[in-house]
Known about the structure:
The protein is of the alpha+beta class. The chain has 2 domains: 198 residues, Endonuclease I-creI (Roll); 92 residues, no CATH class. The protein has 11 helices and 8 strands. α2 packs across α3. The longest helix has 50 residues. The chain is rod-shaped. GO terms for molecular function: DNA binding; endonuclease activity. It holds the Pfam family HTH_WhiA.
Amino acid sequence: MSFTAEVRDELARCEPSCEYCDLATLAALSRVCGTLVAGSGGYRLQVATETGAVARTMIGLTHKILKLKTEFTVRKSVLHRVRNYLIVLPDQPDLEKALVLLGILDRQGNLVAGIPHHAVARDCCRLAYIRGALIAGGFVADPRGDFHLEIAVTGEQFARALADLICQVGIHARVNRRRSSYAVYVKSAEDVRNLLHIVGARRCVEDIEDVRAMKSVKNDVNRLVNAELANQGRSAGAAQRQLELIEDLKRLGLRDNLPRALADFCDLREAHPDLSLRDLGQAARPPLSKSALYHRVLRLEKLVADSSGKTQ
Length: 312
């Protein structure tokens, strides 16, 4: 099961917070993945989906709230090997009233472009409406990759109304056009986590937190490894320059007449060509600090520079 399917399934099992929340969820489901067909015989509402959670929720809430008859068909795609569920609310005496209640039609029989106020009048109903939209058309990327959440809808006015509704619950949402549809999306990892949490996908949020913790550990390990490799590279480069400095001392005839401290450093570096200054100091007897060895390197560099200047 994909992560999106897990999110939809968990959201479909959430209990309503008030007596109107189920209506808000059903209104969003009907609007996001429903198609209204008008003919001489009246209206017909069709909901086609490949998601079992959508079909289950749509049928259950339609019977519970609207008390309407539904027709249910399961079709299987030979090409994609997936099931397709078709739920139809055929023309019946109370269907037009139900369409007004769901915010699909207004009282004059016109199509509603945005989100009806009566469906989202309460804070809990706003969350229920967003939950229904996520169940119907939501996509949540696998948290092991980039964090991303979006809801595919039709109609720019509805898309912007849904984005505003999400913003009202404290989550920053944007709208992007996708050919003949629109995507209401949330990009920030923190916003994706918070939105899923407040609409009821708590178990999926725990999965996200586990993945984020694992990513954090891996990033910390990678930073430490990269830092260590960089340090090793710098140490190796410094050691090579010090060996070249010793060769310059030999070329200038200074190597055999160095003070004891500088001569000991040269012997130590030649004996341990790969060690950093800190580790080289630990190899000395008695041990020496990195600072002490660094100052000896500076003295050797000055000797070479002064001798080279006199030679020129």
